[in-house]
Specification:
alpha/beta, five-stranded mixed sheet, 3 helices, 26% strand, 2 domains, Helix Hairpins, Chitinase A, domain 3, two-stranded parallel ribbon
């Protein structure tokens, strides 16, 4: 994997493509229509509707460009195709919190895919970085907002 490529799962790529399609086929035409409508009301120098529509258009075009850049620089990874005896990007990891004895599980995903509530942590997060290269039975320590946490890797898998 080239160093300038950002890893993303197949699912993450699909979500970005879906958002891009919605922005370009639904949102963009709606903003253009709103601008035309506001412009038809006459003097645009003091037209709040026109200003709001132009601002929305700028934000929309910025997001479209951002998604296009992410997709262009993405290294698509299919976790189901990974065969590794160590934890790498895309792995589903089951951990035991050594203090509370609680089991937690996460999947290591791309930056834009992370959602802790869904159990998806960014490849750049301290926990994911501590896990990369580890294997079943290894212990890791991670600084969290609540202080130092210690985990043991129960198992990991790719799907």
């Amino acid at each position: 994997m080239a160093s300038d490529r950002i890893p993303i799962t197949i699912r993450g790529k699909a979500k970005l493509e879906e958002e891009l399609k919605r922005l370009t086929t639904v949102e963009r035409p709606a903003v253009i229509k709103a601008i035309e409508e506001a412009r038809s009301h006459g003097d645009i120098s003091e037209n709040a509707e026109y200003d709001a529509a132009k601002e929305r258009q700028a934000m929309l075009e910025g997001r479209i460009a951002e998604i296009q850049g992410q997709l262009a620089g993405a290294e698509i990874v299919d976790p189901a195709q990974i065969k590794s005896d160590k934890i790498v990007f895309g792995a589903h990891v089951v951990l035991t919190d050594l203090e509370s004895e609680e089991e937690v599980s996460y999947q290591i995903v791309g930056v834009d895919e992370s959602d802790v509530k869904e159990g998806k942590i960014s490849i750049l997060s301290p926990l994911a970085r501590a896990l990369i290269g580890k294997t079943t039975g290894d212990s890791i320590q991670v600084k969290s907002p609540k202080g130092e946490k210690e985990y043991e890797v129960v198992r990991f898998f790719f799907k």
